[in-house]
Structures are given as structure tokens and as C-alpha cells.
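Section handout, structural biology tutorial.
Before the tutorial, make sure you can parse a SMILES string by hand: atoms, branches in parentheses, ring closures as digits. In the record below the ligand is zinc ion, and the chain has 436 residues. In the tutorial you will relate the predicted C-alpha cells back to the input. Do not try to memorize them.
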Amino acid sequence: MKRLLKGGRVVDPANRIDGIHDVLIDGDRIARVGRDLPVDGATVVEIPDGLIVCPGFIDMHVHLREPGQEHKETVATGTASAVAGGFTAVACMPNTTPVNDGANVTAYILARAAEANLARVYPIGAVSRGSKGELLADIADLKKAGCVAITDDGHPVSTALLLRRALEYAGMFGMVVIEHCEDQTLKGDGVAHEGFHASSLGLRGIPGAAEALHVERGALMSELTGSAFHVAHMSARSSLRSARKAKEAGIRLTCEVCPHHFTLTDALLGAPIPYDTNTKMNPPLREEADRDAMLAGIADGTVDAIATDHAPHHYDEKKVEFDRAPFGIVGLETAVSLSLDRLIHTGLIRLPRLVELLSVNPARILGVAGGSLSEGAPADVTIIAPDLEVRIDASRLRSKSKNTPFDGWELRGGVAATLVGGRTLFRNEGVRLNSL
Ligand SMILES: [Zn+2]
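Predicted structure of the complex:
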């Protein structure tokens, strides 16, 4: 079956395309991209003016919670949330129950993903057995089972020595080590960013230095081993400084930033809803200078990827005192609108750079398919409507969990449609797209 997406603005930075082009999809593959392609028996889908056709977005940091915490999310509900949010693929963190530290758990996740048959799922394996920070997991086994990277996310890798070994092994298999950068002695039992707002609310603080220390450690271990190191959910201005310095020195370091860290600050801890547990995440919402540094890093190219750290929690788990609530918010269905509203419509960056952050670079860092609309590539396509008026409604999220601080937000820009392997898996009812 052939479909011709006709007349949209195609933004495909990997192929240096930004202009009105047609995209011909043959079955599950991209057949051709070009101007005024012949219809040649294909079903024609007219792309209305103003819509943008992009290579499918890839979220390289999500928690799908299965196996073990299916009351928060499942592979099926998480990938439904992904396609509704414009993501054609997600990479899922290993801190499930049991931890994804071996081929059996990886195979289980992949089987659930095949059953759901929505967004592509790339499992990420644990660095250490049980993510306990003691013995290295069987990294060859994880790679063979289908893992694309390793991490002990939720926690940092326990010691510099273990991180060194992880980088050495992962490097042999061409995998990146993803680090939850956090010095646990400095974090202590902190629950919010150390600063004015945490102090005035009587909350224990976590300084930005707790993160930056581990960015530095990772950069040094990457330099020592020559292997690729990736900073998860970067939030502190000192971390950005360290990442920039490492990149200038030619170290194989990459980094991601979450939408909440480039849109929100710790002022949200006290108002409008004091102690709202949907403002509790790790790393925490930081102060304005940190938020502005993340925006600067996105603008100047230091930041490689936007990832959501989609962390679903059940209503009852979040409905407790701030100190006792789990860290994290859902992010898959708000990321694209937040990015368009706060990065594109403010003039900070242009669309090709946004596609790099959401598609090209995540594919490159993880070494997975996608990131371009090249001929023969999987027909994973995200169509965005940059001027669509969007109102975030937590109750209508596809995710099983509704823990978002963005409920009720009005944003400019959203997802029009999501195609995975040529199949339309999401279509926004508010956008006119005939026969897609
Ligand atoms: Zn983390």
C-alpha cells in the first residue's frame, strides 16, 4: 500500500531538507521525498498549509513501569501515551520490578511492546545486577536481548570504578552509558532544589552541585575509557558548564534536558498550590538561572536531546505529604506542545534544531533506526501543527497516570498525527487531515 503525503513543509535536518516536499510511503518504509512526486497509484493525503512533516520523534528517557508496577503504567498505556504525544519510539528505563538486568526481563518488555504494537520500544538495561551498584550486569546478554544502552537510573552508578567498567564493556558493544548524575552524599534526604523556595517551605534541599559533580565524574571516566557517556535529565547550570567544557575537550559526552526543566522553576513549590507533589521530581525544579541555562544550552547546541523522563505515579501515591511523595511527573503528552510554545514561538530556536533535539540526536545517541526521512528508512513520521491552540487536560491523558504540573495550561502548538511503520496510530481530531 502506497500513501503520498502531499504538500507539507518537510523538516528533515539529517538530509538538509526544509521546504515544501512530498513524502511517498510504501508499506512500512519511506520510498521517496521530493517536490511534486507523481501519484502513481498511491493514496494522496493532502497536508494542509502550516503543518510540518518530521521524522518520528524519539523519547530516549521514559519509565513504562512494566513489569511490576502496572498500576502506574503498562507498556501498552505508555506507548499509547507516546503516540498521542507525537513519539514514534521510546527508550525505557530498567528500574522496573524486577530490574531489567538480564535477557529474560528485556524479552518480556519486548513481547509486551509487540502485543501493544504502538510506538517502538527500545529497552535500556541495568549497569549493575538489580541496579544495586555491586556487580556489573551481563552486558553482552543485555545487548543480545535487544537493549540499546545501560543505566542504573533512579540512582547514579555507585562508584567511579563500576562506572569505568560499565563504560569499558558498553563501549565494546557500541552502547552508551546513561547516567542519573547525582552525588548521593550531597543529595542526602533532600526533596527540592536547595534555595529560597525550599527554605521558606521548610523542605530539605538538593544543590545543583550534586548533579554537576557526577557530570564531571562521567566526563573523566569517558575520557579515560574512550566510551560514550550520556547525562540524563540535566537541570543545573553548573552541569551545563561541565558538559560544555567536556565537549570542547573532545570527550564523548552527550546530554538531555526535560521540558519541565526548561519551562518551570522552584517558584512553583509555593504557588499557586503550595507543596503540590506534581512539582516534585528528581532532579528537582531549579531556580531561574538554571532554567535559563538550560534554554541557553538548547539554543547554542550544547544540549543534544529533549527527553521527558516520563515517570507515571498513581494518584494515591502522589496524594501524600511532599516529603513522602515519589519523585516524577508524566511527560509524553506535553513535551511537544511545551517545546513549540517555549522554544519555537519565543524565537529561541528554529524547527530544524527542534527536530534534531527530538529525533535526529536521540536516534544517533542510542544507535537506533529513525531520525531521518531517508529513502528506505522506517516510515516513522510525526506531523506537527505549530499554531494549534492546545489546552492540557490531565484527565484526558492516555497515560495511566495523570501526575502533571501542566494541567490547564494553554499552549501554542501540538501534534497533528503520528505514523509508525507507515500506520497512522494517532490523529488529532482538531486538525483537518483527510484520509490519513
Ligand atoms: Zn533519573
